[in-house]
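A quick word before the example. In earlier lectures we treated sequence and structure as two separate objects. From today on, think of them as two lines of the same record. Here is Glycosyltransferase written that way.
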Amino acid sequence: MAKPTRHTLTTPSAHPRGIPKRALPRLAAALFFVTLVGVALPLAVLHRAAVSRHSLEDPWGRYPLPSLAADDEEILRSPQTTRRAPKDSEDLELDRVLQKASMKDNTVILTTLNAAWASPGSVIDLFVDSFRSGVRTSSLLNHLVIIAFDGDAYRQCAKIHHYCFALGTEGVDFSEEKRFLTSGYLEMMWKRLDFLRLVLEKGYSFIFSDADIMWFRNPFPHFYPNGDLQIACDHYVGNATDLRNIANGGFNYVKSNERTIEFYSFWYSSRLRYPGYHDQDVFNAIKHDPYVADIGLEIKFLSTAYFGGFCEPSRDLNKVCTMHANCCIGLRSKIHDLRIMMEDWKNYLSLPPSLKRLLTLSWRVPQNCRYYVQQ
Ligand SMILES: *[C@@H]1O[C@H](CO)[C@@H](O)[C@H](O)[C@H]1NC(C)=O
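And the structure line, produced from the sequence above:
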């Protein structure tokens, strides 16, 4: 595999504080989205209902997913898929990039990318832009490693970022837009999970973030000091340890230790018991498994007040850390709504501090992401 070319990061754009010259139109736009809050709330409820109908996942976590038939138990007894191969060049390259990107405490920020999300103006540009325009987030780009699933994604990554890693795809083409729950999509999600286990085994803790999550504020102050695995939610019940929280696998902070390594191995091997489901559904099923308690894994669910998404938005722009374009099917809808969300955020940033505190601002999104339908 070719060594990634190092590119200098462009300087993060400075954000003028105080009242800029163009404050008036921005203020007007802000006030416009304030008035929309009243409309957005009932729609969010409708939206949630639509999601529940179409999702494979049990939205309230009451029912376990159908498990496998007794005949299939054979599969489970086959050897584990842990990698014990001698270090190849890909592995050495991974060590190199993780070492360069990691923080002092061996933490990295990871995202995955395929060609469909990599094209200019697409998801990855918005993702990187959010770090540059967020509050105390631009320096976090020094710790971000973009994991490319195909050659196009890798080449595009190298144009816009320091740390790119091409994950061997072994004949599978992950480059196209993957429709939710197609076999290609599932394969990509499980490959990602297996990769994250490997990163933990190498001794690196990580924040994994889908690239369709905008980073508006530094998330570290909002993590729990004593959680092994902290995970964002599609639906948050108001208690960080309640297993009825519906986790979203798109954003999580995982500390490398024997409990998390064991849990990731267990999670990955559980795909055999739940064929046809993706990692997030399987997480929401196995979080109830007594084995997880036996491991001693401490799971913390992150509040949507700080780590929100289109399923359940972070309502207060004075608090929001991240917003995920979840509960959204189709790349066009996603990009459309992500762009509006970035505009809302930049409008908010341009307001004078007194107005930031005074106004109850909210998002103009979801719009096209409102209906959770396969197109
Ligand atoms: C949060 O949930 C846990 C686990 O269900 C429970 O033990 C605890 O009492 C709950 N805390 C509050 C404040 O409700």
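Notice the following. The chain has 13 helices and ten strands. We will return to this example when we discuss secondary structure assignment.
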